[in-house]
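SECTION: protein entry
WANTED: fold as tokens:
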Amino acid sequence: MSMLSQPVGKLARELPGATQIFHLHGIDFCCGGKRNLEEAIDRAGVSTSAVLEALHALSERQQSEPCRWEEQPDAELIEHILRRYHQVHREQLIELIRMAERVEQVHADHPECPRGLGKYLRGLKAELELHMQKEENVLFPLILKSQTTMARGPIAVMQKEHDEHALAISGLLHLSHDTQPPKGACNTWRALYTGIASFISDLKQHIHLENNVLFERQQASPKKEDCCGHCC
């Protein structure tokens, strides 16, 4: 199978480092993970040859990774998600809100002031917090108990909310002028946009690990509770 015909989510899962290439080229590998690479490139409006060249070079120099998440058990992957993304998002958003409100207050008269950014981030924080609590209190415990059938409903809800998070990212980029501070911007303004870019990158990787690895595994690999009993 050619690389162009493979799903983006599959490439992101199986080729370590591919997610960075997709992020740099604006290719949706989280919510759009089921699209093949050719369609994803076309939607992003980027050079096919540039993306393929980067992916092939990455594939050629690929070495064994100390941790390939698609090869790790559910418990380790969930622990990684909780520590690396849930905890980090909470810390990121508190500081981003503080800086956004400061920039809006100090630079209210500037034509490129990100008006409404602080309020938008507060709304995003509330939505993401509720989403993460659902995972922590309902979905992840079901997965860890191998309750695959019961987990499928919550998984569908989480995937829908991931689509909403992707739309929220678009709004965040719009309000922050694609995270490009104006000439002469103060350190807080620059740090705010750098922090937003980092948050967006982390959120995309977070969604990818859930949609294309953890959730895909639950949907594709029935466990004993789903088995007829004749195949065991």
Remarks:
- The radius of gyration is 19 Å.
